[in-house]
Amino acid sequence: MSVQWNSERDDFISLTDIAKLKDSDNPRYIIQNWLRNRNTIEFLGVWESLYNPSFNRVEFDAFRHQAERLAKLNAIAISQMEILIQDHRIEALEAHSGKLSPME
Questions:
Q1: pLDDT digit of tens for each residue in the chain (104 aa)?
Q2: Which one of 22, 25, 41, 70 is separated from 14 by 20 to 30 angstroms, measured CA to CA?
């Protein structure tokens, strides 16, 4: 996939158009995945600071910190879900093999 941009010709880059190159039916999922990536958020900050004279760096930094906190919370939640799923699988296997006796 190749995306070309000319600052003299193009006023903006459409993330939707780029995402449609990857998945024309559901570009929103591609964009959601991009925005979950810390590197994408950092890139957008650099891009805006270079090409947007009214870019508010302080507001962006607050947004970036919030995104980092949410990413950490998501990582913790995913880790806990994986543990619960694994525990459930072990219990299901033990019950299926007869190693667990019903509690009376």
A1: 566 666 677 667 778 888 898 888 999 888 888 877 778 888 888 988 998 899 898 988 888 888 778 777 766 777 777 777 777 666 666 665 665 545 44
A2: 70
